[in-house]
């Protein structure tokens, strides 16, 4: 089956209205953080961030399929020596919109810059918030399994007797674990911490994702021919990876130069461009 890419140039708040209801399987995005990068694409004051984002998350809720997932990469900044609370406020307001806050992944930035601050250490992680519309959503856990490695040889081989029988949950949740079940396996499920270096290649964008980041979530939450959306696509990392993995992709960015740049990187596939002047233009591969 042919896969497609759609690129919309403009403000996500408006451009998202052109995307049909319940048509997207996965949204992976990193919006501008509050007050960040004013010089390149405008910062939103941290007090106004929630009001700015909610009309966009309302549209994202509409376009996401009931089985779909929304991964939001965001981190609160430090304001006058304190962490700002806008991410927490945003989570609370998004829940009122109907979103379920199902999980939080941590992106551990393996290569963060060294530095010294008077009252904190260097910031080596960011949040990847997971939201869903339903408690049941598509998730292909086997696709992201990791090698057992040395863990199996060291810790698992020294198991106590209680570890070898099913250790039922003390709170009666019905969940339990039998660690010895994992002894002979080659692969284990990963944790919710992703250890990835920040993007080092010069991608002509100051805040590009490392490719492994959208790739991991695309594997976990989609199959071939599913549709992935990035409403703040920047250099288009999400689209390029989705394209390579044979997923349909949709990207939006307010800066026309970024849209041009993404267009040039994509493989020759069916590409639709939505620009302010030419509303619709089909580019032949
Ligand atoms: C943090 S960057 C995304 C980087 C991207 N993940 C990548 O890998 O290159 C955020 C992007 O959002 C775009 N942007 C900011 N406000 C926007 C809006 N209201 N609608 C659409 N795009 C917007 C900026 O131009 C910028 O490229």
TrEMBL record:
GO terms under cellular component: cytoplasm
Pfam families: N6_N4_Mtase (PF01555)
Keywords: DNA-binding, Methyltransferase, Restriction system, S-adenosyl-L-methionine, Transferase
Gene3D superfamilies (alphabetical): Vaccinia Virus protein VP39
Gene Ontology annotations of biological process type: DNA restriction-modification system; methylation
Residue ranges of every copy of the DNA methylase N-4/N-6 domain listed in the record: 24-264
Reactions the enzyme catalyzes: a 2'-deoxycytidine in DNA + S-adenosyl-L-methionine = an N(4)-methyl-2'-deoxycytidine in DNA + S-adenosyl-L-homocysteine + H(+)
GO molecular function: DNA binding; N-methyltransferase activity; site-specific DNA-methyltransferase (adenine-specific) activity; site-specific DNA-methyltransferase (cytosine-N4-specific) activity
Domain of life per record: Bacteria
InterPro entries associated with the record: DNA_methylase_N4/N6, MeTrfase_CN4_CS, RM_Methyltransferase, SAM-dependent_MTases_sf
EC number: 2.1.1.-
Enzyme class, UniProt record, top EC level: transferase
UniProt keyword annotation of S-adenosyl-L-methionine present: yes
Keyword Transferase among UniProt keywords: yes
UniProt similarity note: Belongs to the N(4)/N(6)-methyltransferase family. N(4) subfamily.
Name under which the protein is recorded: Methyltransferase
Lineage of source species: Bacteria, Pseudomonadati, Pseudomonadota, Betaproteobacteria, Burkholderiales
């Amino acid at each position: 089956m042919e896969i497609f890419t759609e690129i919309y140039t403009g403000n996500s708040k408006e451009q998202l209205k052109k995307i049909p209801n319940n048509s997207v399987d996965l949204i992976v995005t990193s919006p501008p953080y509050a007050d960040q990068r004013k010089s390149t694409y405008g910062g939103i004051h941290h007090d106004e961030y929630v009001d700015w984002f909610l009309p966009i998350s309302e549209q994202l809720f509409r376009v996401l399929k009931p089985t779909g997932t929304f991964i939001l990469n965001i981190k609160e900044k430090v304001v006058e020596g304190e962490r700002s609370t806008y991410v927490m406020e945003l989570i609370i307001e998004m829940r009122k919109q109907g979103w379920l806050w199902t999980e939080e992944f941590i992106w551990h930035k393996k290569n963060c810059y060294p530095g010294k601050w008077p009252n904190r250490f260097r910031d080596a992680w960011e949040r990847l918030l997971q939201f869903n519309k339903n408690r049941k959503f598509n998730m292909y856990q086997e696709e992201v399994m990791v090698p057992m490695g040395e863990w199996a040889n060291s810790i698992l081989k020294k198991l106590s007797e209680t570890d070898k029988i099913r250790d039922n949950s003390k709170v009666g949740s019905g969940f339990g674990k039998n660690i010895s079940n994992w002894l002979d396996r080659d692969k284990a499920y990963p944790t919710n911490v992703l250890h990835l270096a920040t993007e080092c290649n010069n991608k002509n964008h100051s805040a590009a994702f490392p490719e492994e980041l959208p790739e991991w979530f695309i594997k976990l939450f989609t199959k071939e021919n599913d549709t992935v959306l990035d409403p703040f696509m920047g250099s288009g990392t999400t689209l390029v990876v989705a394209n390579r993995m044979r997923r349909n992709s949709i990207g939006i960015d307010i800066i026309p130069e970024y849209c041009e740049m993404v267009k040039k990187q994509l493989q020759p596939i069916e590409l639709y461009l939505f620009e302010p002047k030419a509303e619709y233009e089909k580019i032949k591969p």
